[in-house]
Amino acid sequence: MRPKNKRDLKIFVGCLSEEKGGIARKACSVACIGCSKCLDACPKEAIVMENNLAYIDPAVCTLCRKCVPVCPTGSIIETNFPPRKEKKTVATIATKVLSVNPQKDA
Questions:
Q1: Residues facing 54 on adjacent strands
Q2: Which domains does the chain have, with CATH numbers?
Q3: Confidence label for 8 from pLDDT (cuts 50, 70 and 90)
Q4: Residues near 41 by beta carbon (within 8 Å), at least 6 away in sequence
Q5: Cα–Cα distances in angstroms (integers) from residue 32 to residues 18, 45, 103, in the given order
Q6: DSSP, res 10
Q7: How far is residue 91's CA from residue 78's CA, in Å, rounded to a whole number?
Q8: Are 41 and 71 in contact (CB under 8 A)?
Q9: Secondary structure (3-state) at 83
Q10: How much of the chain is helix, strand and coil, in % rounded to 5?
Q11: In Å, how far are 35, 55, 69, 92, 95 from 89, measured between CA atoms?
């Protein structure tokens, strides 16, 4: 099996409907609604909005994936990336501890 390298990793907008908002969502379930949240999240300014649609410039994009979780419609798609690691918060640690050591009622 061939190892994956950076060229195999891709981030792109999944639907190319140029309509805005609800009309775009009717045309495609993962349509970009033109909210520009991805623009604010991108540290390299690799995303531009044209005709109510986000475009990701692959020459500028560093594949940091910061735009993916902020997209409310899930229209920014990442391929061939390893799964994201779960952030360890107090709540997740407490849940894991309680599942390993359940408290017994006295």
A1: 49
A2: 7-82 (3.30.70.20)
A3: confident
A4: 66, 67, 70
A5: 8, 17, 46
A6: E
A7: 28
A8: no
A9: coil
A10: 25, 15, 60
A11: 29, 33, 18, 5, 10
Structural tokens at position 80: 């061939």
At 105, the pLDDT band (50, 70, 90 cuts) reads low
DSSP structure class, residue 90: H
- Which pair of structure tokens corresponds to residue 76? 């920014």
Confidence check: pLDDT of 2 > 50: no
Which ranges in 5-105 belong to alpha helices (H)?
22-27, 37-41, 90-100
**The pLDDT of residue 46 is above 90:** yes
Radius of gyration of the chain (CA): 19
In 3D, which of 37, 38, 50 has the Cα closest to residue 11? 38
* Confidence at residue 3, expressed as pLDDT on a 0 to 100 scale: 46
Whole-structure pTM value:
0.66
Measure the CA–CA gap between 24 and 6, rounded to whole angstroms.
Answer: 31
Structure token digits, residue 100: 């390993």
